[in-house]
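Please, structure for the following, as tokens.
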Amino acid sequence: MRSLAAELGVSPMTPYRYFNDKDEILAAVRARAFARFADALEGAFDAPGAPTGRAGRVADAYVRFAFGEPASYRLMFDLTQPHEGQYPELVGASARARAMMTAYVRGLVDAGVLAGDPATIGHVFWAALHGAVVLELAGKLTAACDFDKIRHEIWRALLRGFAPTISDAPKRAEAVTV
């Protein structure tokens, strides 16, 4: 909190004029980060185009945010917020972001590109992309197996794994490059 106050150019006690405690400050910072993240994902999702293009734009927006604001990304996903439900702004912003991280999958299922429960599939894609992002942010990926290569292979494998079969739908899965 002292570092935050110093960066803002205020005394260490100034934030406590506006917030009850450190948890409330962190909740406000996290809520704003989630809101910016949701804005980025919604902007990508709302652009016109085919479901496959939408999926790629949402994934690109996710990655741009994570790498463009790594401190915010870590605060959003690495921090356990005590009593998170007590902060309505945080709950709302987090729910918006979470909804957008999986919403594009409904279009892929409706178009016959994927088969299965869109919410579950969306969470699987999210978990895989998040894992790759965290590894990249931690410097754990190498030139031999860099982030872009990992990301491409994640999408390829998941698209193949969730592709409809003859019994799922009459439509054939189309290739998606993300």
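The longest helix spans residues 22-46. The chain has one domain: 2-161.
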